[in-house]
Amino acid sequence: MHSDFNPILVLLGQIGLILLLSRIMGLIFGALKQPQVIGEMVAGIMLGPSLLGWLAPDVSAAIFPVESIPYLNILSQLGVIFFLFLIGLELDPKLIRNRGHAAVVISHASIVVPFLMGAGLALYLYPRLFNASMPFTPVALFMGAAMSITAFPVLARILTERNLHKSTIGAVTITCAAVDDVTAWCMLAVVVGVAKSNALEPGLLTAGYSLVYVAVMFFVIKPFLVRLQQIYERQGRLSHGMVAIIFLLVLGSAFATELIGIHALFGAFLMGAIMPKGTQFVRHLSEKLEDYTVVLLLPIFFAYTGLKTSIGLINNADMLFDTLLILLVACAGKFGGSALAARACGFGWRESGAIGILMNTRGLMELVILNIGRELGVISEAVFAMMVIMALVTTALTTPILSLVYPRRLLMEEEEALQPTPARGFGLLIPVANPQSGGQLLKLADMIVEPAEDNRVYALHLRRPIDREAYRTGLQDSPADDAPLVALLNQPHAVPVRPISFVSRDVPEDIVRVSENWNVDLILMGFHKPVFSSTILGGAVHRVMNAAPCDVAVFVDRGFKKARTILVPFLGGPHDQLAMSIASRMARNIGAAVTVLHVVQPSRGADASLGAKQATDRVFQDPTQPTPVTFRIIANDAPVDVVLAEATKFDLVIIGIGEEWGLESHLFGFRPEKIVEDSPASLLIVRSHQSPT
């Protein structure tokens, strides 16, 4: 049937389809606020007999002919070997060594309870779903180990995205997950050894070889790696030769453990675990490996898993009951054991529930273990499909249930309890996106905020989740993560600046939330043009302007250095009055010369400016004002043209949003903003919260 089978063409087509579907499903699940890895796992299931093979068996057979499956298997195994090396690379032993009493109790309970429940479940399932060729002892041990796993990298991504990784709950949970992963892999090595040994003597021989292997890794290879790190630090770069040495060590370690009889993945994991931690050497190596492994090879592993997963095998009420029972036991063992242990250690019920929910995350690590069990023949195809469903469901439930049990407002309350109550003076918030804009915004903030004791400035840096962090611990922040804040804080400033930084899925929403929590008076944002809008007052800026409980100012930089002269176009609305108020502050603080420009229609006459003059006098009547304000009236039917003509004489134009100025806030704005596009002077576009946009 496949006499014209071309393995290269078929493999390239398969990889292209796998990558495309993985990216699409990852984006869909990301939009649903789920870890992207779940979408990639689902994509793999969709390509197998559970969906594609069921809907279009001929198409499935053409895309994935039987002859091509071994090639996918080899690539997937290679991907998982290097992925396990990355997991070991990111796993810091300090998490285990420095754990407190609570972490010790919870981690032990989260391993022992699900292990015993999984082994006990095997008693019930063995006569129903297993055959005589599968000895009961390895089946029971494997079911226990599979129930005990926690997806350390996916869990860490969830903690990081919800900014829980530095909280008490996050610290305890990530410690327990690290302990669980190390323990589970050790248990799995024992299970594999037992499954492959048909007698006592081979089993003892495998154990002896394993001890020798571990001793060599710790006493020979680890010191060599430290020496390699020193060479890296001396050279300041990771050469191709070093990368080749590391790859050879990973492959050699995996080869040794496979030869011993405890599976190649254990060797890759241990090789990563003994690498020097907390160094640029490890981070640089990790960054070199991650994109290739995570983007290309892991989706192939998911697809291979999907090709071996047939949900159609669960085709009657008894099988469905067994699937639900596996799911129930998995949740009860992991969630129940962790939550009850946390409660016994003094955590409240809500905190204990959050820890239990997080520890119930299984994800990719569960699929890795299940594939090992299927290869060893200790689980049937039906049990494999049931356990895959359990892995997907328990991981997908983590984020939504955690949001109900431990919503973000509780985390904010916990943070606020540790922070001083904001003073009553003037507060200004600067959302910082990049080092260049941050410096200019801080310069403006110094001109607006008087260096009084009660006044305060907050610099907020919201980091977008990074795709590859779904497979990393996400605990060791790169120095580049907060580079905008570092650059800003290193700049001289008159008013003390308090930095705030965390990961955000919704930047506008979090800017508004921080401004409300810290009771600020003004949000000072940098200029940007949204992807789906041609105006600077669209997209994220629009959302902040419409939701913020305070005034908002958007800065458009035209080579701004100092506001010696300020122009305030004025038509009388609340946004224009806010513009005058900010100009008044800058006049008092730095002695800027302010000109209020009132544009009237020629037909209205001079009397129309009387109210504008009175409003100006009220704002600038402070006797401490170092320079007088200049009030000018120009009669013209084209106020925008007047402002652009006058702007050539000033350093800064402070202008309120308004239809007359061609400045309106729209989520998907496509109207031209002539003042923004043509102004030769820098702009500060302001919106008062006292008036709807």
Can you walk through the features of this model?
The structure is a single chain. This protein is an alpha/beta fold and 693 residues long. The chain has 3 domains: 7-410, Na+/H+ antiporter like fold; 422-526, HUPs (Rossmann fold, 3-Layer(aba) Sandwich); 558-684, Rossmann fold, CATH 3.40.50.620. 60% of the residues lie in helices and 9% in strands. The chain has 27 helices and 10 strands. It has helices spanning 7-31, 36-46, 52-55, 57-63, 69-90, 94-97, 101-129, 136-148, 152-161, 168-196, 200-235, 240-260, 264-273, 280-307, 317-344, 349-359, 363-376, 381-405, 408-417, 435-448, 483-489, 507-517, 539-547, 574-590, 610-619, 639-647, 674-678, and strands at residues 427-431, 456-463, 497-503, 522-526, 551-556, 565-570, 593-600, 630-635, 652-656, 682-687. A 10-stranded mixed β-sheet has the order 3-2-1-4-5-10-9-6-7-8, sandwiched between helices. Strand 2 (456-463), helix 21 (483-489) and strand 3 form a beta-alpha-beta unit. Helix 16 runs antiparallel to helix 18 (381-405) and helix 20 (435-448) runs parallel beside helix 21 (483-489). The longest helix is centred in the N-terminal third of the chain and has 36 residues, at 200-235. The radius of gyration is 31 Å and the shape is elongated. The protein starts with 6 loop residues before the first helix and ends in a 6-residue tail after the last strand.
List the total number of helices: 27
Unreliably modeled segments: 468-477
For this structure, the CATH topology of the largest domain is: Na+/H+ antiporter like fold
What's the end-to-end separation, in Å?
A: 68 Å
What is the helical fraction, as a range of percent?
Answer: 55-70%
Strands of the largest sheet, in order across it?
3-2-1-4-5-10-9-6-7-8
